[in-house]
Amino acid sequence: MEREIGSTMPQSRSSRPDPSSLKAHEIFAAQSTPLHPHLPATSHPHQSRAERAMAPINLSHRRTHNLLLISKLLNLRDTASPFTLLLDSLEQPATPLLKEYIRRAKLSKVHVTLISFETLRKPDGVDAFISARRKSPADIMSEVASAYQPAKTNGPPQRRLILIDAINPLLSSKNPDPTFQLASFLGSFITPRDPTAPKADASLVVAYHTDVPGLLHQQSQNPYKPAHLSILTYLATSIITLHSFSHILAQKAARDRSLVAPVFGLDEEQDGVILGRLDKLTGTGAAEGIVLELEHRRKSGRGVLEWYLLPPASRYAASHVKEVVTLLDDNVLYNPPVELDSRAEDEEPKSTFELGLTDRQRRDREGVVLPYFDAQYGDGPGEGGRILYDMGEEDDFDEEEDEI
Amino acid sequence: MPSQPPLPPLLAPYLSTQPESSLTLVSSILGATSNWLVLRFLHAALSNSSNNASIGLEDSPDGKKKKVVFVSFLRGWEFWKAEAKRLGLDLTRLAGKQQFAYVDGLSELFTTPKPTGNTLPTLSTGSPAPARTTLPLRSQPGAVPGRTPAPASSPIGQGSTGGPSISEPGIAKKLNFAGQGLTALDKLERDISTVIAKFKTAEDDEILLIIDQPDFLLASTGPSYAIGATEMMDWVTGLQQAVHATVLTLAADSPLLHNAPAASNQMATPVESEHAAFAIGLAHRAQSVMQLRTLETGAARDVSGVLRISRGGGWSTGAEENLDEKELLFYIQRDGGVRVFGRGES
């Protein structure tokens, strides 16, 4: 059940390329993973929006399959997504999600490499920390390659996680390497250049700050070159856009009242405001957490769209193994439970008049031959259209009025 | 109105403790400048422990000395000295005690000082990363006699016309921008880190680096010098590596941030797009962001502006995540004292 559910979701994603453009799988074809078995596809294309939002079967299907999917993606199982792109903004930075990636990688003993364009000190749990300050892309590539040597074992291929904390500085450098190609740069992390080397399943997770401008000089250099963000979204096998939960709630509350959804931070365009994130002031209280808007592209060409909620890291222990991510629609703050009254449809409107019919009254009413039926028998001119009346036993005959 | 304590009690926890290798970004706009906040950062780090104890903060328990290196690009030494005096800080004396170092990024940044002796910057011939020891450095002012009264009559701009006035007490270094792109930035970085290195006598000294308005450097050079937001941020990162914590102020006026939105295709000028990328990129790296702005509802008699403290996008450990996000009002009195209070309080 992987229908397009975007229309019921908080924001439309209009600037995103078509999810069915699966070029990335050709590029990362070296990573052959078994195709996820197809799910029963009982799609209802003409389902109305209300049905779609409420249908309980629908939600339970999504609960099973899409929760499995996010768990697979975050745990880096089966290299379900070789290249994951995290689109963040100041309102919801990607660092908590990167930490979650590192936490899960530690639990399953995956080697973690962090390529740092922004981070000063090595964060906890990172095995190899590579500062990319003032380094050419080629240097970074060779450092990453030498940071981890997979042991030659006959067991299952070892796994490796490569994180880039922000790709923006690389893309907007004023001294670009003329030979630099973004696609081959990213691809080199996933597929080792030396085919004889022991194989390690590498997953690449790249954060991109969507609110940092930086396209000006690039476009003036070569106007025919696509924007960096277009290349990134084109290559990515999964795109996770991050939102702050309290903002999503505030926007939903406004939409439910048919008001214009509020904007936060830079979008407010208020003088002096860079960051709007003030969790306490939004009035949503305990609405902590990150909303993940996932777009996953299967190898089959089908795209999956889903909204998830990642609770704050303080809510669970670092060694917590069970899945902590839930569907956004399952959250009680986002989707308050509707009080279902099963007898609601049977009830009549309350009134002092009896508006219902007894069985006998209904039978009598069905027995009435309406005048236009009678007129069709054609008994002669003037005969059609008579009012036919069968006296009931409770009627009393009035000569003046009831003359037939 | 009664005189205020130099450190507003509500702000004290934010001003006096900076986690290790953290970046605090202070953004200001034209109507709400950050000078008073910078001075309070200075005061929190430099004033002696008795002052801190009076507001409920003890001195760092392990006897670490707090030192400040202050790089200013937009305002002169005289200004800071006078303003600090109103708070009860004698910067010249503190400089003599090797607790404070002032790096002047204003007076000789773009004017070549007269070639007297070996003070001529030779960086224009240098390779991007020459060994630091080979660089002919200006003689440090070194042991400035602390009690020497400052030449109060010298105006701010005099240093640029009267040759390298390195004898001026309190100024550890005057920055000079020469060359192009990374080379020029590397020289500035080396100049500042030399000051830091000389200054760091003991290994566990906590050095706080305050960089005031480096966005001026970006705006005055820009793409024609092959300097963009990325290069500036790398420059800041390089300085951050040498110190305990960094406080950085920059302008966040609307035209500098909002004329170059990331998604739109409209043409923005280089200053607009580079400044926006610099400011937003730094906010992504910062552990906390303090934003100053004026009241949205217009001017008020007893409120100068709004201070919003929020978490930035940078990596942080668990303890730092407990930074309380707050929005406070402040009022700058005639005597320079600042009152900070919550909305609805007075």
Can you offer a commentary on this structure?
The complex is a heterodimer of chains A (404) and B (346). Chain A is α/β, with parallel strands linked by helices. Chain A folds into 2 domains: 6-330, P-loop containing nucleotide triphosphate hydrolases (Rossmann fold, 3-Layer(aba) Sandwich); 348-404, no CATH class. Chain A contains 12 helices and 9 strands. Chain A has a 9-stranded mixed beta sheet with strand order 3-2-4-5-1-6-7-8-9, with helices on both faces. In chain A, a hairpin with a 5-residue loop joins strand 7 and strand 8. Chain A is elongated. Chain B is globular and about 50 Å long. Chain B has a 10-stranded mixed beta sheet with strand order 4-3-2-5-6-1-7-8-9-10, with helices on both faces. Chain B starts with 11 loop residues before the first helix and ends with a strand. Chain B is built from 11 helices and 10 strands.
